[in-house]
Design a protein that fits this description.
Strand order of the largest sheet: 1-2-3-4-5-6-8-7
CATH architecture: 3-Layer(aba) Sandwich
Number of helices: 5
Largest sheet: 8 strands, mixed
Number of strands: 8
Distance between the termini: 60 Å
């Protein structure tokens, strides 16, 4: 009698593909009882990210469109660009009958000096589900692990939920000298 050894399914994947696709954490939304996962953004996510950005732009005001454009530029030109700086991003995904759908994105990229500039966006229907908190805490853990000393970002003065989230996670909220309608978020990681 012969024994057959069947290798584990993950051992058949190339090492480059196995990492980001297998490193996926699942979370549960307490309000609507839906599950979503968070994983690092990879180059295969271009279509999903573009669909997410188009959905957000449809409901956005002029000021929000500017910040969404800055997030899209960071994602497509810095995070997804191969061989560039140490930019990283994370996506919250909901599984649907036709595949995954992005419901939130958080990313950072190195900026002048010793800080990383971050940006975050969550779909309107998920804003009360603490997905922003999950994404931001994942981004902070990653930034600490790779040695980013400071994270900075901007938010609209009127965005009270983002201000409360940032303050609860240890960010300092400062006035922006160039625009009184904006606030600067700063977090020292070291």
């Amino acid at each position: 009698m012969q024994k057959f050894v069947v290798p584990h399914s993950s051992s058949r994947l190339p090492i480059a593909l196995a990492g980001p696709w297998l490193a996926r954490r699942w979370y549960y939304t307490p309000r609507t009882h839906r599950a979503y996962s968070v994983r690092q953004i990879s180059s295969g996510d271009r279509r999903l990210l573009a669909e997410f950005a188009m959905g957000l732009n449809a409901d956005a005001s002029d000021r929000e469109v500017e910040s969404l454009q800055a997030l899209a530029d960071m994602l497509f030109e810095r995070v997804l660009a191969v061989g560039t700086d140490m930019a990283a991003g994370f996506a919250a995904l909901e599984s649907t009958a036709v595949g995954d759908r992005v419901i939130g994105v958080c990313a950072y990229a190195p900026d002048e000096g010793d800080c990383g500039r971050f940006s975050i966006a969550v779909a309107n229907s998920y804003r009360e589900e603490q997905i922003g908190r999950t994404l931001l805490s994942t981004l902070i853990r990653h930034a600490k692990r790779v040695g980013v000393p400071n994270l900075t970002g901007q938010m609209a003065w009127s965005n009270r939920p983002m201000q409360m989230l940032a303050m609860s996670m240890g960010f300092n909220v400062e006035p922006e000298p160039r625009d009184r309608n904006l606030r600067r978020l700063v977090l020292a990681l070291k």
